[in-house]
Amino acid sequence: MKVIWKKVRRFMLYSLAFLIVVLIVGFVYQGISASKDFKKYQAVGKTYDVFNNKMHIYTGGEGPSTVVFNAGSGTPNPYVDFYPLYEKLDNKTKYAVIDRFGYGYSEITNRKREIDNIVDETRKLLQESGQKPPYIMVGHSLASLETIRYAQRYPEEVKGIVLLDAGNPEYYFKQKSLTFVSQVSQFLRTSGVLRVMYQFDENVINKKRNNLEYVPNKLKEVDSAYYLLGAGNKNQTDELRQLKKNAEKVLKANRGLEVPMTVITTDNFGEIEQDWLDSQEKLTSWSSSGKQIVAEDSRHYVHHYRPELVAEEILNMTKR
Q: CATH class for domain 65-318?
């Protein structure tokens, strides 16, 4: 019995030592690769000093109003993510793609991801970059909270809201914290595991985004790089940690927004959950002029499945 236990203990020690070596190699591999990626994939727009950190914005187009894009939680690179939309808006209206802190080309901040902090940062970035209202605020997924909150605090600056499969604050208020998922993503990224997985399957990153069907290959490469550079970082994790408090703050404020709102809901290819659909229908009541559109043959990143539909609704909002 002692001999067997001795062998088991030796096996466990060797296994632990092997695991430690693998992790060290993984962390070094990720560190070296990340350094190369940061040098290779430079910011495409402009960065501005916002509350002592650099924040990135990508702008284009012309027109009397500006479409402001706010990406959903965990989106690797908003500049890439919204390409299927701003590519269609380029010669029809002005637009601005926001990189929140911890996303895309923006730095990581020590400021808490409290909803008013996020709104203040977005507003200052718009001001510093010379973007002037009125704004059409477009928010995907979790960005519904900052989009609605912006309109609550600065209604005179917002001309309209378009939400892309974005959650009702009441829905988010009831959700349990998902920080564990983000923390796991961070570990897999920093340990180099995600990078190794990507070598075997490039689509491991964007399978749920229609494989970025409407995005050029060069931008797909940028998107992958920034997923491997930032997945689950502390700002993205803190957004999820603050989810309930942020939703509560939005819920306690004015729900009667005097701006038109279009809620575009994915049908998840016919498998939409009823509670999500119900919450999406209720979301239109937040506006004095709200409507819902259910986008068929689409999933959560609806703008990667039905970009023509989404772009058309955004342009309709600019004409109101």
A: alpha beta
